[in-house]
Amino acid sequence: MAFSGALTLTDLNDFITPSQACIKPVEQVLPKKEENQSGAASNEIKIDNGSYYEIVDDSASITGRRKLEQAQISLNDCLACSGCITSAESVLITLQSHVEVLDFLSSNAVASPESRKVAVISIAPQSLASLAASISSSSSSSTPVTTLQILHRLRACCKEALGFAHVFDTTFARHVALREHVKEFVERQEKHCMKNQGEDGTALPMLASACPGWICYAEKAHPEMIPFIATTKSPQQVMGTLVKDWMGQKWGKSPNEIYHVSVMPCYDKKLEASRTDFYNEMYSTRDLDCVITTAEMQLLAQEKGWDLSLPVPGEVIGPPLDATLEEALLPELIQHPGSSSGSYLHSIIDYLKVNSPLPLSLSVKQVRNADYEEYVLREEGGPNEEPRVVFKGAKCYGFRNLQNVVRKVGKDSGVRVGIGAAGRLKGKAGVVKRGKRGTEDKSYDYIEVMACPSGCVNGGGQLKPPANFEDSEGFSRDWEESGVSMDSIPAAKWGNKEWTKRVENAYWHSLPTPPPSPGRENHMTHSGKRRR
């Protein structure tokens, strides 16, 4: 299968052999002059007080040297470069593919009983929504396929055709992560109010930590943002802990006796699973052994001759009869109000509304577009009192909006924005001191950050739209005639808004659209582990 043309993780490698050219060579335009005579001495480059100087062998030069300008790398160069990924990590990512899954399942099936591993697969709800939208658009039936039906069809496929022992969705792990996320925010807020900010990760605003694309960008381009990023694990990694630790104990298996596969809407999730943070030194295993995308999951089913458009018995009435005890005990597809990217912001808003001694009102304002919105909670005062702002958060999706957020966080918190893409914009770098601000200009307390426009339903690993499907107004849409090359786009692309809306609707199929305001019913009583 062809991968995304924008960025293919399996092609990344930072080892440059003599036959390869640097992706971004440093270019310095020199003034034209006569060529040196044969045998003339070459120019030298020296470092003086952190700056680079070229030693010029020219009588016209007074100092005999010329200061070289600093090379500028744009955001596109940053994202296209392989320097963020080491050679060892590139090997790990290469192994994370549907081919690796098939190889393991084939060898595991013929392994001796004592060496055979328990094969487990967990599927993200965004991936289920992508499959549901694709199958519904290709079907002649007027009734859309739900994510619950897709989950049960995948469970049958993974067990009967592929050989997995257990199949889960990741919504239970997401709610565990949300519970811990809220707990961390409350702790940061309390320390922030006591002016106890230090190097212990207690700075506000707190930035979401579930998107690996955003985390990679922040670590490499804006390390000054790291203290603001939450330390809570993503739902993918929480699920890895649940499967290999909690469920492993129930099965009488150690973590290295379990092979855990995750189906995600994003290629960057492969890199997240390869981080050393999530490696168990004692058992020499990772929380996730392999991460595949939604498109790769569909390819797995196709290679085994399994048609996901065909129904399976009991797919609309809860867990099927062949579900294991653990699959029946874990709630399926726990729904939630908020966003289709995890609802991190809304879980905090929900907590604050429930635990406030006074009624709170929520207002939402679109800042630039639907991918950048502000949420403000106000404490309702008396007849002659102005409402007091108690919380201000934002939902920020896409790298264009992300850069604006980086600059705003730096400005509001007095942090020097680095030389990354956001810091190089004109007039935005440097330390900015806080001044007196009114309630309407209150700094953000929390930001839900995602790298992809429209969030996780539009991840790079999602399915591309069918060649012909109806748009939101019910008209048939030929994407080839619209200028969208279907052969060159293996996944739903960021500019394809109509298809993203279709996937979004499939995600919220069992809930009113738009989703309701945050309420009390969304709380969990279980907390997960934190990332270090």
UniProtKB/TrEMBL annotation:
Residues 508-532 are annotated as: Disordered. Coiled coil: none annotated. Pfam families: Fe_hyd_lg_C (PF02906). Residues 120-460 form the Iron hydrogenase large subunit C-terminal domain. The keyword Electron transport does not apply. Keywords: 4Fe-4S, Iron, Iron-sulfur, Metal-binding. GO terms for molecular function: 4 iron, 4 sulfur cluster binding; metal ion binding. InterPro entries: Cytosolic_Fe-S_CAF (IPR050340), Fe_hydrogenase (IPR009016), Fe_hydrogenase_lsu_C (IPR004108). Component of the cytosolic Fe/S protein assembly machinery. Required for maturation of extramitochondrial Fe/S proteins. May play a role in the transfer of pre-assembled Fe/S clusters to target apoproteins. PANTHER family: NITRATE, FORMATE, IRON DEHYDROGENASE. Belongs to the NARF family. This is Cytosolic Fe-S cluster assembly factor NAR1.
